[in-house]
Amino acid sequence: MITDSPENATYNPELKSPSPKAGYSQLTTHNSQPTSDNLQNGTDGSQRKFSSSKAGYSQLTTHNSQLTTTPGVIVIEGHVQGLANTRLLGSKGIDVIVVDKDDCVARHSRYCKAFYKCPDFLGDDFADYLIRLHRAFNLQYWLLLPSNDHAVHTISRNKERLSKCYKIITEDLPVIENIYNKRKLLKIAAQAELPIPATIMPETENPSEVDLRYPILIKGNQGLSFYKRFKHKALMLKDASELKEVWDDTLAGIEPTEYFIQEVIPYDHKTVSVTVFAVNGEVHAFWMGVKLREHPITFGTATCCKSVYEEDMLLQSKRLIKELNYTGVCEIEWLRDSRDGLAKLIEINARTWLWVELAAKSGVDYPNMIYDYVYKDKLPQHIDYKKDVVWLNIFTDLVYSLIGIIKGKYRIKDVCKTYRKFHEATWRLSDPIPFFKYALSTGRFLRNR
């Protein structure tokens, strides 16, 4: 594997080729700097937003191995989903370089050819970094595959200049804004007559009372930024007194346009993710999964999931994707309201998600679908995927399953049932090191979450 030593892997504005260290290889390039002459439109001029062009690919070599001359993929963020993307692509013989602003589990995979630390995904410095990476190693028209919302937004914002260097699956900025600006997304869904939770969007002041049934949720208009600032994905308030207090306490300094308020949907059902590969608003492939357990126990990140099928959620997702005119892979989250039976929109992630490997284990391999679409003009096809396939992150799920059982949220027999047969998030017999590296970092990870 090509890599920097940990102390040499930090972000370097000059991005010079790393020096060989004991136990590490050196990444070198032999071809000339790429040009944008061979960046082409789709072969039919209409359906494809991008296509392949292999001219200008460089050879990256190490002391021990040689990468292929076919285009590779830069996996952006190497957490669990980045590890899944790296393995799924690498096992097909596709070269993968991982970049992350922190140390990450994907860098330890046998399929990771190189790892580099980068600046924060949120700023344009990250786009500058990607361009320097391209120039340093002549990665002409390698594919950028982000698994982080900030990276998605930065790539979209800088898409014109990055497209001269890379192939990009990320949507144009107006589409991304319609997805990640949740006020805009909810308005688009409502205009398309798709069910959403009862919602209030303050404009001029933080309200001391709202005409909603309690409990209520306060959510950030830009979810990841809200989480980083206030350390909560959402705040649940039980009564009006808590609403009055929150503006001077947990959410001190927040502006009215930075959030919205929703009625809490009774948690009698679990969140279902409808994931799709669409081209110009038409869904060509899909897969669905339900979050059985999560951390925190409500409104959290998945620790155990299962593949399912929900007809009404698929139909609603297709309508929403058409309304957005979306191209690429995304995850659409729905929660069924037990009061009226309607599946109501929660959010969309315009990227691969934490448990993308479960889709592949069920038969829908999104990373390789993306690769085939970008480089082979191959439209994805619907696959009759396996249902009731279970995926879990054993390190987080064991802890939060126990907490959930103690709090009466989970039943022991339901938890035990999922452990009879499952796919572990980081374990693979042919690629075991990430599992053990992740195990060592579990304590720190749980504290950070």
Question: How are the SSEs placed, and which strands pair?
Answer:
Layout: E1 28-29, E2 60-61, E3 73-76, H1 80-90, E4 96-100, E5 112-117, H2 124-137, E6 142-146, H3 149-157, H4 159-162, E7 166-168, H5 173-180, H6 182-191, E8 199-200, E9 216-220, H7 223-230, E10 234-237, H8 240-246, E11 259-263, E12 272-279, E13 282-295, E14 301-308, H9 311-324, E15 328-336, E16 343-349, H10 356-362, H11 366-376, E17 390-392, H12 394-406, H13 412-418, E18 423-424, H14 433-448
Helix pairs in contact: 3-5, 5-6
Descriptive overview:
This protein is of the alpha/beta class and 449 residues long. It has 3 domains: 165 residues, 3-Layer(aba) Sandwich (Rossmann fold); 66 residues; 177 residues, ATP-grasp fold, B domain (D-amino Acid Aminotransferase, Chain A, domain 1), CATH 3.30.470.20. It is 31% helix and 21% strand. It has 14 helices and 18 strands. The strands form 4 sheets. It has a 7-stranded mixed beta sheet, with helices on both faces. Strands 5-4-3-6-7 form a 5-stranded parallel beta sheet. Strands 8-11-9-10 form a 4-stranded antiparallel beta sheet. Helix 3 runs antiparallel to helix 5 and helix 5 packs across helix 6. The chain is globular and about 60 Å long. It starts with 27 loop residues before the first strand and ends with a helix.
Helix fraction bin = 25-40%
Spell out the CATH superfamily of the largest domain: ATP-grasp fold, B domain
Largest sheet data:
7 strands, mixed
What's the number of extended β-strand segments? 18
Radius of gyration: 22 Å
Can you list the strand order of the major beta sheet? 16-15-12-13-14-17-18
Q: What's the CATH topology label of the largest domain?
A: D-amino Acid Aminotransferase, Chain A, domain 1
Low-confidence parts, pLDDT < 50 over ≥5 residues?
Answer: 1-65
| Class inferred from helices and paired strands | alpha/beta
Measure the end-to-end span.
30 Å
Return the CATH architecture of the largest domain: 2-Layer Sandwich
CATH class of the largest domain: Alpha Beta
Number of domains: 3
How much of the sequence lies in strands comes to 15-25%
Mean pLDDT, nearest integer? Answer: 85
Q: Overall 3D geometry? A: globular
By DSSP (H or I, 4+ residues per run), the number of helices equals 14
